[in-house]
Automatic annotation (TrEMBL):
Belongs to the glycosyltransferase 29 family. The keyword Transmembrane helix applies. It is a single-pass type II membrane protein. It is found in: Golgi apparatus, Golgi stack membrane. PANTHER family: BETA-GALACTOSIDE ALPHA-2,6-SIALYLTRANSFERASE. This is beta-galactoside alpha-(2,6)-sialyltransferase. Keywords: Disulfide bond, Glycoprotein, Glycosyltransferase, Golgi apparatus, Membrane, Signal, Signal-anchor, Transferase, Transmembrane, Transmembrane helix. One of its GO terms (biological process) is N-glycan processing. InterPro entries: Glyco_trans_29 (IPR001675), GT29-like_sf (IPR038578), Sialyl_trans (IPR012163). The gene is Dana\ST6Gal.
């Protein structure tokens, strides 16, 4: 859980009362669930290093302090990440950085989860990863944030909080990330809206027990997590990330692909014909502007995904291809900013990975997010399917990726907690109990 400190003006007293009731409910609920993880968060980290002495017991990952004596593990250079004449100039590329990994993750690798040495190595690795995310967050906003999307964020509660406790999973759920439906305005009046499938996003939702989200991170290479991934009822992948030739590491089952509008639009991805986009559910997204209407979006999407979406849907009328509601993408951004509290996050949409998590969580009691928060397999590669070395893909340069991953880490409920995340690469997120959430911050 997260803690935000601000001043409290008088007009919010009623709100405060409901907050206190809710906080009591939350605490009670947590106790009922017997959440051992929450307890562990309040215990001091037992790491036998000088740095560890400086680290306060974290209430959330945001409360682990950056230690200025520790060498920052990622070097940044301002070269573009991709140098391809095929790609149109776009702000996403302009701010990309080529970053080189200088940490040696292998030093922290271990498997004996019962040994103290392994426990300590894992805690040290966690610390370095969290510090890197923290540093990336503080660097991210001022230097190169042109506010391309006209983000005009006003904190939902203004400066009205003394203290606020709210589980991160609830914040994600309340963003209500969703796909557009035929009945949604203005699509109910437009011929384009009739292209949306009548079916729901997932079939037989009651039978869904476990879901895997497979990040495209380079650290999946050599992981041998394929069999584990394939045991899940739903497997989510991103963009054009392949399974063929990588089955041992990433599995072969795909239920849904979340694809960004570049992938839908650019000829090199061949969205309307490539086999990789067939016989799976597709959830395509484009952010539009922060306060833009859906009508605006239809004419000013970042990349015009509508044309290829229409071709695809007409060519395969039985397909399950959906468009994600861009308003819900920005609500997710707001959830992320609320989690970050008074630390401004980058004013660009979340990555497909985080959007995918928010889309899936309401449908799935347990989500295993694979190699999203990097494990000791971290190798500096951008993707498991390419040789490009670029740590910015992992630590963020354009999306508010560092904040996303800190928030995801805050949601982790894996049994072995840090061992699971940092040694095995699996972060487990449980859908929160309805009693725990229900604030409806966004009132949509
Ligand atoms: O790289 P990308 O992401 O397709 O990765 C999918 C999701 O996996 C997680 N990821 C990826 C690499 C890495 N080292 N660590 C990770 O955690 C992220 O959650 C990511 O969202 C995207 O989010 O859609 C993105 O798409 C690419 C690119 O458009 C597509 O791969 C198609 O080429 C973007 N790269 C560029 O625009 C240059 C990337 O910024 C975001």
């Amino acid at each position: 859980m997260r803690q935000v400190k601000r001043a409290l003006p008088g007009q919010c007293q009623a709100l405060l009362v409901s907050l206190i009731v809710c906080a009591a409910l939350i605490i009670q609920s947590e106790q009922q669930v017997g959440d051992a993880k929450a307890q562990r968060r309040h215990e001091p980290i037992e790491v036998n290093t000088p740095e560890a002495a400086n680290v306060r017991s974290p209430r959330s990952v945001f409360h682990v302090r950056w230690n200025p004596n520790e060498k920052f593990i990622v070097e940044s250079r301002e070269n573009p990440a991709i140098n391809s004449s095929k790609l149109a100039p776009h702000p996403r590329l302009k701010v990309s950085k080529n970053t080189k990994l200088t940490l040696s993750p292998k030093l922290y690798l271990c498997h004996d989860k019962h040994s103290e040495l392994c426990h300590n190595k894992t805690q040290q690795f966690r610390q370095r990863i969290v510090q890197t995310f923290e540093k990336a967050m503080t660097e991210s906003v001022n230097e190169s944030d042109p506010n391309h999307y006209n983000v005009d964020y006003k904190p939902v509660f203004g400066d009205s909080f003394e203290e606020q406790y709210y589980p991160s999973t609830c914040l994600v759920m309340e963003a209500g990330v969703r796909v557009l439906r035929r009945k949604d305005e203005p699509f109910n009046k437009l011929p384009f809206g009739r292209l949306f499938p009548r079916q729901k996003l997932f079939r037989n939702i009651r039978n869904i027990k476990t879901c895997a989200i497979v990040s495209s991170a380079g650290s999946l290479a050599g992981s041998k997590l394929g069999r584990f991934i394939d045991t899940h009822d739903i497997v989510m992948r991103f963009n054009h990330a392949p399974t063929e030739g990588h089955e041992v590491d990433v599995g072969s089952k795909t239920t849904i692909r979340v694809v960004n509008s570049q992938v839908v639009t650019k000829p090199e991805f061949d969205f309307t014909r490539a086999p990789i986009f067939r016989n799976v559910t597709i959830a395509a997204w484009d952010p539009g502007k922060y306060n833009g209407t859906l009508e605006d979006w239809l004419t000013s999407a970042d990349y015009d995904l509508f044309t290829n979406y229409e071709i695809y849907r007409r060519r395969y009328p039985k397909s399950r291809a959906f468009l994600i509601d861009p308003h819900s993408v920005w609500r997710l951004w707001q959830s992320l900013q609320m989690f970050a509290g008074n630390r401004a996050i980058r004013r660009n949409p979340p990555s497909s990975g985080f959007i995918g998590l928010a889309l899936l969580l309401p449908h799935c009691p347990q989500v295993d997010f694979v190699e999203y928060v990097p494990s000791t397999r971290l190798n500096g590669r951008c993707h498991y399917y390419s040789k490009e070395m670029n740590s910015a893909c992992t630590f963020g340069s354009w999306h508010p990726l560092a904040a996303e991953k800190l928030m995801a880490l805050d949601m982790n409920m894996a049994e072995d907690d840090d061992m699971s995340v940092f040694q095995f690469g699996i972060l487990r997120i449980r859908r929160p109990d309805k009693l725990l959430c229900g604030f409806n911050f966004f009132g949509y």
